[in-house]
C-alpha cells in the first residue's frame, strides 16, 4: 500500500504542541500525544450541537464509512464529517504515528490482554463497558456512559499502513480500540480486522466518542500462549513481522503493535 495519499482535508492548527521523540524511534514519524490520550477528554464540550460543529467546518470532507478513512493521508491532523442515519458530526482524524502514554495504559492494556489471552470471557465483557480506573491494579469499576463530545477525535495513526499492520491475510491480527468520551472512563472494542477497527472508530465518533488509541496483536498469540501454558510476557512490536517473530521465541512474547 502506498504511503502517499491524496488529500482534500483542511489541516488543523498544531496549538503550539511540541513533538516528542521516544527512545528507539529515530527515523520514524512521531507526533505529540494528543489531548485525551493521557487523561480526561475535555477539549471539546459535550454540549456543542452537531449542527454547530458542521457549520464551523463547512469545508470538511465527508467520509461515508470506516473504510473510507484509508483515504486520509498519513501524517495529517484534519477534519472530516462522519455520519450514520442518526448522527452526523465533524471529527478530528489524526494519522500521525501518535505516541500514547505506555505508562498510563500499561496496567490497563496488560490486564485486558491477559484476560483476552486466557479467554476469560466474563472479564472481557467488563472491558466492553465503560470502566474506571485504567492505570492501577485496583478493581475495575463499571461507570455510567459518559456524555459524547461535540468534536471527537480518531487517533487512527498508521492503521492502514501495510508496512506496520500488514494486510490482515498473511498474519491476521486482533485490533483493540480504546474509546473515551467526556471524562476519563474508557471502554474497549475488539475486532479481527483493520476494516473492523476503522468501522468501530467511525461509529463511535459519529456518536460523539473519541478513539484515543488503537493497537493490535497477532491472532495466533492465543494458540501460542496456550501452548506455553499461559507463560508469556508483553513487548512493543514496531510492525507485524516483528510481532509474529516474538511468538516463536522462548519464552513467548506477545508483541503489541501501535
UniProtKB/TrEMBL annotation:
Protein name as annotated: Uncharacterized protein
Annotated Polar residues bias: 1-18
UniProt region (Disordered), positions on chain: 1-52
Native species: Aspergillus coremiiformis
Amino acid at each position: 500500500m502506498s504511503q502517499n495519499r491524496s488529500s482534500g482535508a483542511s489541516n488543523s492548527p498544531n496549538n503550539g504542541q511540541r513533538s516528542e521523540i521516544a527512545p528507539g524511534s529515530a527515523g520514524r514519524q512521531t507526533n505529540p500525544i494528543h489531548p485525551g490520550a493521557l487523561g480526561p477528554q475535555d477539549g471539546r464540550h459535550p454540549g456543542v450541537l452537531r449542527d454547530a460543529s458542521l457549520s464551523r467546518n463547512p469545508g470538511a470532507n465527508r467520509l461515508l464509512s470506516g473504510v473510507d478513512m484509508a483515504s486520509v493521508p498519513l501524517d495529517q491532523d484534519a477534519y472530516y464529517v462522519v455520519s450514520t442515519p442518526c448522527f452526523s458530526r465533524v471529527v478530528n482524524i489524526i494519522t500521525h504515528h501518535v505516541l500514547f502514554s505506555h505508562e498510563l495504559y500499561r496496567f490497563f492494556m496488560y490486564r485486558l490482554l491477559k484476560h483476552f489471552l486466557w479467554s476469560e470471557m466474563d472479564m472481557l465483557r467488563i472491558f466492553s463497558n465503560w470502566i474506571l480506573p485504567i492505570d492501577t491494579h485496583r478493581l475495575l469499576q463499571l461507570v455510567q456512559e459518559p456524555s459524547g463530545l461535540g468534536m471527537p477525535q480518531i487517533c487512527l495513526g498508521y492503521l492502514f499502513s501495510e508496512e506496520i499492520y500488514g494486510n490482515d491475510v498473511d498474519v491476521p491480527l486482533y485490533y483493540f480500540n480504546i474509546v473515551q468520551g467526556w471524562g476519563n472512563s474508557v471502554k474497549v472494542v475488539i475486532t479481527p480486522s483493520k476494516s473492523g477497527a476503522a468501522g468501530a472508530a467511525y461509529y463511535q465518533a459519529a456518536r460523539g466518542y473519541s478513539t484515543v488509541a488503537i493497537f493490535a496483536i497477532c491472532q495466533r498469540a492465543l494458540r501460542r500462549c496456550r501452548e506455553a501454558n499461559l507463560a508469556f510476557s508483553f513487548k512493543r512490536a514496531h510492525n507485524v513481522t516483528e510481532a509474529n517473530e516474538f511468538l516463536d521465541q522462548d519464552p513467548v512474547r506477545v508483541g503489541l503493535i501501535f
